[in-house]
Amino acid sequence: MFDPTADLKAIFKILQADSTLLTLLGWVSGEKGKYIQPQKYSTQTLANKILFFTFMPFQSTRNDLCTRAVLQVEAHVPNQTTSSVYGAWDILKRVRQLLHQETVNGHEFMWFPGEGQVLSAKDWIGVSNRYRYTLVI
Asked: 3-state DSSP call for residue 91?
């Protein structure tokens, strides 16, 4: 059954519990929610590096009883040096290690190609990748 709120909360719990990911995001102490957000907010009011995740439009399948849910994960970092873009990809690499082939709320998340650069705030770099799972309607 599709319960987007429960799925997003479970993903948030997985991501914020990982110390390696939090280190890549620059978290030292305090509120972890400033670094990992279940939807896009202004990068100006949040942390130095940010990870957003949200559902995208679903994909159809050959079977009318099934559809594919798509979760997009974006890492946004300040564009201060040429290594900034590598830092963003390192964040997504860790997310892939955490989510790919993991079962969350009864759904097996599968990474699929299609990652790339996304729009971000001025002087920031944003990169993304996507995960999908099949839902029975």
From this structure: helix
pLDDT band at 28 (very low <50, low <70, confident <90, very high): confident
Q: Taking the alpha carbons of 94, 97, 98, 101 in that order, is the dihedral positive or negative? A: positive
Per-residue pLDDT tens digits for 51-91: 888 888 788 888 888 888 889 999 988 887 767 778 889 99
pTM for the full predicted model: 0.85
**Residue 22: strand, helix, or coil:** helix
Over the range 91-121, which residues count as b (16 or more CB within 10 Å of their CB) and which as e?
Answer: bbebbbebbeeeebeebebebeeebeeeebe
Residue ranges and CATH numbers for the domains of the chain are 4-136 (3.30.2000)
Joined tokens for residue 75: 């890492």
Reduced to 3 DSSP states, what percent helix, strand and coil does the chain have, rounded to the nearest 5? 30, 40, 30
CA dihedral sign of residues 4, 7, 10, 14: negative
Residue among 62, 67, 87 at smallest CA distance from 76: 87
Read off the pLDDT of each residue in 9-25 and give the average, rounded to a whole number. Answer: 91
